[in-house]
Design a protein that fits this description.
transmembrane; Inner membrane protein YbhL; transmembrane helix; membrane
Length: about 60
């Protein structure tokens, strides 16, 4: 169980770093917010990834 929490901590730290980097890099912000297609495409891709990972987790 401790190993699971360790992986969760690593995942949260990685997510925090990527969010900080994206928020502080103008090029990334321009890429995300320059087009509605890009913005909503990223949201849809994120939801699709969650659904796919949930389905994979339910199989095991």
């Amino acid at each position: 169980m401790a190993q699971v929490y360790g992986w969760m901590t690593v995942g949260l730290l990685l997510t925090a770093f990527i969010a900080w980097y994206a928020a502080n890099t103008p090029a990334v912000m321009m890429f995300v917010f320059s087009s509605k297609i890009t913005f909503f495409g990223l949201i849809i891709a994120q939801l699709a990834l969650v659904i796919a990972l949930s389905a994979m987790g339910a199989k095991t």
